[in-house]
Amino acid sequence: MLCFLTILIGALCLSIAFQPGRALEELRGTLYNDLRTSEGAKRQQQRFCGPLVAMTFNFVVSIGIIMTNKVVMVKVGFNYPILLTLIHYAVAWVLLGIFKTLALLPVSPPSKSTPYTSIFSLGVVMSFASGLANASLNHNSIGFYQMAKIAVTPTIVFAEFILFNKTISRNKVVALGVVSAGVALAQVTDLQFNFFGACIAVAWIIPSAINKILWSNLQQQANWTALALMWKTTPVTVLFLLALMPWLDPPGALLFKWDIQNSSAILMSALLGFLLQWSGALALGATSATSHVVLGQFKTCMILIGGYLLFESDPGFISICGAIVALGGMSVYTSLNLRETKKESSGPHQKQTLPLSKPKTELEPTPEETSEDVETLSLLSSNAV
């Protein structure tokens, strides 16, 4: 009897000891199985990278890459913005290839759900948006560069209305106008006009807006995850950056001093560039293109105010007032977004019944669609009872 109790207690202790390992193994198996389907991978991304996490991640990485790129372009003297962007995307593609080899890359949605033309268009737009952004920063002052970014906001609103018939409330329009005016005041003391740089800045506005819209739409409507979409679009982006490099970069890239110190700084910039692309894609998938632009303007204001408070820089009274006005507009815009989110989450049943009512202008449904609608209505009525 004593021997039996000893064996029973030993077995119980072993089961308790191995319980955490079993739970960890089950969690690992669940994550692995979720990565095998696009819907499961999308659920995991939404679970671990909500709007607050994604936008905070993007904010921190953006600050890091600004400092790193400043070192690369000023101290290292690497004045080849398109080539630097190309190195960023090439390193990102290599890292994504390693993820795919280790079975850590989420599965893409079926090819029938997303035409290849959409993936190709996004890759092309990404090359122009990223390449022209670095070229604009290289040829313009920071103030003029930020002024050009202000024009992205109304461009996104107009493009979403044309492409998807999407509108925003009047209160949001007023809040975005306050944000744009505040950022303009904050950067008015650092305006230096350069005709060639101005042309690049204007040419960058439309690709930047379309890039953000496509990233947000494909993730929210077609079950794409950030990493899977990056894997598909990066090769196209690399090819078009190669085509842009002779036109926008100065000659002499091969004569640059590629020693260990300079190469390490450029490689660090490339790693941060991968994190910036990933975090930006996560933020666009979790929020919207307009919210991502507002986040970028928030970073600008925080850098200006942080420099004034921490490093005793003196941007001027007008710039500080503009930054404060912009932050106030961002607070109002954020509160309006949260209020709309609460309204949407409080009425899920109304949202489910909306797709069942079809406009009169649509074609007559097929028998299969009619039977599916009847079954859905019967299930809803039985649940209501």
UniProtKB/TrEMBL annotation:
<feature type="transmembrane region" description="Helical">
    <location>
        <begin position="119"/>
        <end position="137"/>
    </location>
</feature>
<protein>
    <recommendedName>
        <fullName>Sugar phosphate transporter domain-containing protein</fullName>
    </recommendedName>
</protein>
<feature type="transmembrane region" description="Helical">
    <location>
        <begin position="226"/>
        <end position="245"/>
    </location>
</feature>
<feature type="transmembrane region" description="Helical">
    <location>
        <begin position="47"/>
        <end position="66"/>
    </location>
</feature>
<feature type="transmembrane region" description="Helical">
    <location>
        <begin position="265"/>
        <end position="286"/>
    </location>
</feature>
<keyword id="KW-0472">Membrane</keyword>
<keyword id="KW-0732">Signal</keyword>
<feature type="transmembrane region" description="Helical">
    <location>
        <begin position="317"/>
        <end position="336"/>
    </location>
</feature>
<feature type="compositionally biased region" description="Acidic residues">
    <location>
        <begin position="365"/>
        <end position="375"/>
    </location>
</feature>
<feature type="signal peptide">
    <location>
        <begin position="1"/>
        <end position="23"/>
    </location>
</feature>
<keyword id="KW-0812">Transmembrane</keyword>
<feature type="transmembrane region" description="Helical">
    <location>
        <begin position="293"/>
        <end position="311"/>
    </location>
</feature>
<feature type="domain" description="Sugar phosphate transporter">
    <location>
        <begin position="55"/>
        <end position="333"/>
    </location>
</feature>
<dbReference type="GO" id="GO:0016020">
    <property type="term" value="C:membrane"/>
</dbReference>
<dbReference type="InterPro" id="IPR004853">
    <property type="entry name" value="Sugar_P_trans_dom"/>
</dbReference>
<feature type="transmembrane region" description="Helical">
    <location>
        <begin position="78"/>
        <end position="99"/>
    </location>
</feature>
<feature type="transmembrane region" description="Helical">
    <location>
        <begin position="195"/>
        <end position="214"/>
    </location>
</feature>
<feature type="region of interest" description="Disordered">
    <location>
        <begin position="341"/>
        <end position="385"/>
    </location>
</feature>
<dbReference type="InterPro" id="IPR050186">
    <property type="entry name" value="TPT_transporter"/>
</dbReference>
<dbReference type="Pfam" id="PF03151">
    <property type="entry name" value="TPT"/>
</dbReference>
<keyword id="KW-1133">Transmembrane helix</keyword>
